[in-house]
Amino acid sequence: MNTNPAGSGEFGRGPTSGPIVPKTANEALRPEAGTPPPKRSRASRSQFVVFMNFVISSVMLMVLAAGVALYLGKQAFTESGPSANGDTFLVKPNTGVQDIADQLERRGLISDARVFRLGVRAFGNDSALKAGEYEIKPGASMRDIMELLKSGKSVMYSLTIPEGLTVEQALKRIADEAALTGDMPAATPPEGSLATDTLRFTRGATRQQMVDKLLADQKRLVEDVWARRASDLPLANIEEFVTLASIVEKETGKGDERSRVAAVFLNRLAKGMRLQSDPTIIYGLFGGEGKPADRPIYQSDIQKQTPYNTYMISGLPPTPIANPGRAALEAVANPSKTDDLYFVADGTGGHVFAATLEEHNENVARYRALQKKQADDAAKAAAAAGSNGDKPADASTADKPADGSDDAGDAGAAD
Questions:
Q1: DSSP 12-68
Q2: pTM of the full predicted structure?
Q3: Tally of helices (H runs) and strands (E runs) in the chain
Q4: Phi, psi values for residue 117, rounded to 5°
Q5: Do 268 and 340 contact (CB within 8 A), yes or no?
Q6: 201 pairs with which residues across the strands?
Q7: Residue 198 has what pLDDT?
Q8: Rounded-to-integer distance, Cα 112 and Cα 104, Å
Q9: How far apart are CA 337 and CA 326, in angstroms?
Q10: What is the separation, in whole angstroms, between the first and last Cα of the chain?
Q11: What residues does 136 pair with on adjacent strands?
Q12: What is the 3-state secondary structure (H, E, C) of 258-304?
């Protein structure tokens, strides 16, 4: 009979307990081993899954890197540029974005050509940048430069051909303009055929283009004014019209007396009188080069035979003597209605007019008296200042200046 209250087991052992194994103190204190983790499934150990995990991780890193690069690139594209003083920048025709970016970086106008190139393309302006010369302001950002080159607002240059220049003098101005390119025309245009105007152009325009425009503008202007002329002008054709306008242009620069000067010459032509205009003497002597500024007209010049000296020839010279402007052309086309046949300088930059030789002689006498007084005053001032300048030539042998230089103007010799 079993008397163990715990059942059939022995004393001190549970119903399923095995024999008691004695433990040392260290073993008793050591923690029992936990439940082992479950084994990985076959799917998780698949090479495809491992590869896809790598791909997804790489894409996420690339997206993150691209986002950072985009942010930094945008900052660089819009922040102030490295140029402290600004500069002009020339984009030649058919230049690509890459070349433009490289040139900007070499010039120190942008910090990174690659950022500029990518920024331009990101905004869809890869083919929108225009040729021209641009003024880049100090500290301009890459975006500012992109917008400027996209706008086409190039630096503009000016070329001025003043009224009264000869064709030769006008062509010299065009040839000396450094912002223009190309050769001058092989053939010199006719005298009086160039417009007197201020042309606006961008660097790289050609000299031939400037000449062509001046020729076309003058032709259009002359034909327009000639079509609106008075019906009783003693001029045979449009060529004579331009020739007389060139003489009026050289005789006076005062707008309020051009039509009256034109009337004097037209009245003389109608009466068969010689024009006796000083600027025609000068053109006959010096041609298109023009008279040196310090060279007066001498008495002997008046008697020199040239095809242009209207003291010696009747009627008009064979060609114009300068390029007339609109005001001179208008004055000849519609002159003042007067009987004046003479004019002479008044000493103040203008002229006094006369219908008779007697009145003209009085005007000339007053002008001579004014000249003498001015000369005497200048001599006294020089003496007071202790001037020791060169003595004048002997009056008995010197060739004296005529009455009125080309600056003074004169029509009709004094008796």
A1: T--SS--------HHHHHSPPP-PPPPPPPTTTT-HHHHHHHHHHHHHHHHHHHHHH
A2: 0.73
A3: 13, 7
A4: -60, -45
A5: no
A6: 157
A7: 95
A8: 9
A9: 20
A10: 182
A11: 87
A12: HHHHHHHHHHHHHHCCCCCEHHHHHHHHHHHHCCCCCCCCEHHHHCC
Angle between helices 207-227 and 238-251 (to 10 degrees): 100
- Mapped onto helix, strand or coil, the DSSP state of residue 353 is strand
Q: Which 8-state DSSP code applies to residue 364?
A: H
Rounded alpha-carbon distances, angstroms, from residue 213 to 168, 190, 269: 16, 15, 33
pLDDT for position 398: 42
Q: Are 413 and 276 in contact (CB under 8 A)?
A: yes
Q: Residue 79 is encoded by which pair of tokens?
A: 């922040």
Give the per-residue pLDDT at 60. 80
pLDDT at 163 over 60: yes
Instruction: Give the number of residues written for the chain.
Output: 415
Q: Work out the angle at residue 387's Cα, subtended by the Cα atoms of residues 385 and 390, and round it to the nearest 5 degrees.
A: 165
DSSP string, 129-187: ---EEEEEPTT--HHHHHHHHHHT-PPEEEEE--TT--HHHHHHHHHH-TT-BSPPPSS
Query: What is the band of 22 on the pLDDT scale with cuts at 50, 70, 90?
Result: low
- Single-letter amino acid, residue 74: K
User: From CA 199, how far away is CA 210, in angstroms rounded?
Assistant: 8
Residue type, 29: L
DSSP structure string for 291-335: --TT-PPBHHHHT---TT-TTTSSS--SS-SS---HHHHHHHHS-
What count of other Cβ atoms lies within 10 Å of the Cβ of residue 234? Answer: 15
Distances (CA, A) of 153 to 91, 127, 135, 146, 201: 12, 16, 9, 12, 12
Q: CA 178, 182, 184: angle at the middle one, nearest 5?
A: 95
76 and 132 Cβ atoms separated by less than 8 Å:
no
Percentages (nearest 5) of helix, strand, coil residues in the chain: 45, 10, 50
Strand, coil or helix: what is 338? coil
Place of tokens 């007197």: 196
Task: Name the DSSP class of 206.
Answer: B
SS3 90: strand
- What gap in Å lies between CA 160 and CA 170, rounded to an integer? 9
